[in-house]
Design a protein that fits this description.
Strand content: 35-45%
Low-confidence stretches: none
Shape: elongated
Mean pLDDT: 80
Strand order of the largest sheet: 1-2-3-4-5
Number of strands: 5
Order of helices and strands: HEEEEE
Number of helices: 1
Radius of gyration: 14 Å
Structural class: alpha+beta
Largest sheet: 5 strands, antiparallel
Helix content: 10-25%
Length: 106
């Protein structure tokens, strides 16, 4: 059974943050809000706004919050940091993510 577009959007978001921070840098990854930004009553949205939070390092005292816009038509992810330690590498950036393919036969 194929996964829903909302799950795909979450996976793209998480994989982008993992590529920047590594697995350890995503402690307590949490989806606070997941909002479709297009779609119809008969077709699931291909664009999503995600508010997420996580601890960026083992020494973080509070989670960082991000607003992420995902477009599944182009696999693009735009990031806006809402709170947490300053990180110019991510704030206001747009990325194109290549989703991982499942191995054949699975």
């Amino acid at each position: 059974m194929p996964e829903t577009n909302s799950i795909t959007a979450i996976k793209l978001t998480r994989s982008l943050f993992e590529s920047v921070h590594g697995n350890i840098g995503l402690l307590n990854f949490n989806i606070e809000e997941l909002t479709p930004t297009n779609g119809t009553a008969t077709e699931e949205s291909k664009k999503w706004k995600i508010i997420c939070s996580f601890y960026e390092t083992l020494g973080s005292t509070s989670p960082s919050r991000y607003e992420v816009t995902v477009d599944l038509n182009t696999n693009s992810v735009s990031i806006k940091k809402l709170s947490g330690p300053e990180n110019k590498a991510l704030d206001g950036t747009e990325w194109t993510v290549t989703p991982k393919k499942a191995p054949e036969g699975k």
